[in-house]
């Protein structure tokens, strides 16, 4: 009698060029979290396999085990390629959370305490991907300035990719995107929605007044007039060469005034790129006078 199992290869192994087991996924996931601050959900298993397989082929490696060994023992250059391969438009809520703590404690709370409600405050999320970054800024504002609706405060959220921008504007997230978020925040700023048997989370409509979404290519002239009190330009300039970065920060610096803030991604720096800013914290810059 034939055994059925031999006729039906497991879906896991059927289409795979390389063996990819749970410990490979967990190890790579932990490394991405350490390196970039991104929380890769369980549902990103196939994405990780697909993107990292390209690195295996490029390096002529035959297994994920060999690739992990290279990451652990190599000179670090593959770590950069590994992160780039995985983070093209990956993002997460409160990614690199120290930036949001800084925004709250060193910028928004002092504004509130100084009674500066009449001030015009403009914040730019310049490569906003699917929206987690501008919505995290919005939540930080709502928590730091409970009467934010009475402030002249706005967030401009932009990205080059119009599809990802449309997703950002929709503001609806699968459960695994909000996993780990403080339950109080989740209850306050999201509405649970059942969609085709799945639970999704819709960002509160109140933020529509606070955030404007727009397509902008950072390689081109910037169409806004400024001044921009706070700029988030995170995890995007790694894709640009140094000259492109210099051009971009010359244009951004023109839109900021003395003491305005600039946040870069965890592996990004203005060293040999711009003299218009001073480093004041981990990847946090202040516009010079
Ligand atoms: C890794 S995501 C960063 C998302 C978010 N800033 C964060 O740190 O989590 C990079 C984003 O940069 C966008 N991007 C790439 N090149 C760009 C360009 N020339 N102008 C504007 N956005 C760009 C991509 O579309 C992508 O959404």
For the biggest sheet, the summary is: 7 strands, mixed
- Number of helical segments with 4 or more residues: 12
* Radius of gyration computed on alpha carbons: 21 Å
The structure class reads alpha/beta
Q: Spans with pLDDT under 50 lasting ≥5 residues?
A: 1-13
Strand percentage = 15-25%
Question: TL;DR of this structure?
Answer:
The chain is of the alpha/beta class. The protein has twelve helices and ten strands.
Characterization of the model:
The chain is of the alpha/beta class. It is 41% helix and 18% strand. It has helices at residues 4-7, 11-14, 22-36, 45-58, 64-73, 77-86, 98-113, 132-144, 162-170, 175-178, 183-189, 242-254; strands spanning 120-125, 152-159, 172-174, 190-195, 198-203, 211-215, 230-233, 261-264, 277-281, 284-287. A seven-stranded mixed beta sheet has the order 6-2-1-7-8-10-9, covered by helices on one side. The longest helix is centred in the middle third of the chain and has 16 residues, at 98-113. It starts with a helix and ends with a strand. S-adenosylmethionine binds next to loops. S-adenosylmethionine (SAM) binds next to loops.
Jot down its keywords.
289 residues; alpha/beta; 7-stranded mixed sheet; 10 strands; disordered N terminus; binds S-adenosylmethionine
How is the topology of this model organized?
Layout (H helix, E strand, L loop, with lengths): L3 H4 L3 H4 L7 H15 L8 H14 L5 H10 L3 H10 L11 H16 L6 E6 L6 H13 L7 E8 L2 H9 L1 E3 H4 L4 H7 E6 L2 E6 L7 E5 L14 E4 L8 H13 L6 E4 L12 E5 L2 E4 L2
Parallel strand pairs: 1-2, 1-7, 2-6, 7-8
Antiparallel strand pairs: 3-5, 4-5, 8-10, 9-10
Helix pairs in contact: 4-6, 7-8
The structure holds S-adenosylmethionine.
């Amino acid at each position: 009698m034939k055994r059925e199992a031999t006729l039906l290869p497991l879906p896991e192994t059927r289409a795979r060029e390389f063996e990819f087991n749970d410990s490979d996924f967990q190890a790579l996931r932990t490394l991405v979290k350490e390196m970039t601050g991104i929380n890769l959900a369980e549902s990103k298993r196939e994405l990780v396999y697909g993107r990292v397989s390209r690195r295996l082929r490029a390096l002529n490696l035959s297994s994920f085990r060999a690739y992990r060994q290279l990451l652990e023992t190599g000179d670090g250059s593959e770590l950069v390629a590994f992160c780039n391969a995985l983070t093209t438009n990956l993002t997460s809520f409160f990614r690199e959370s120290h930036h949001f703590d800084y925004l709250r404690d060193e910028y928004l709370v002092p504004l509130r305490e100084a009674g500066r409600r009449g001030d015009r405050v403009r914040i730019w999320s310049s490569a906003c991907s699917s929206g987690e970054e501008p919505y995290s800024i919005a939540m930080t504002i709502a928590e730091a300035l409970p009467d934010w609706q009475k402030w002249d405060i706005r967030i401009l959220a932009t990205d080059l990719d119009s599809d990802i921008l449309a997703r950002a504007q929709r503001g609806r997230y699968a459960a695994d995107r909000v996993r780990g978020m403080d339950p109080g925040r989740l209850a306050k700023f999201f509405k649970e929605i059942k969609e085709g048997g799945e639970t999704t989370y819709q960002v509160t409509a109140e933020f529509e007044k606070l955030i404007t979404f727009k397509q902008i290519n950072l390689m081109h002239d910037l169409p806004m007039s400024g001044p921009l009190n706070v700029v988030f330009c995170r995890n995007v300039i790694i894709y640009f060469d140094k000259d492109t970065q210099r051009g971009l920060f010359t244009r951004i610096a023109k839109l900021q005034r003395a003491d305005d803030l600039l946040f870069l991604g965890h592996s990004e720096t203005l060293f040999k790129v711009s003299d218009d800013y001073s480093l004041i914290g981990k990847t946090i810059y202040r516009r010079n006078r």
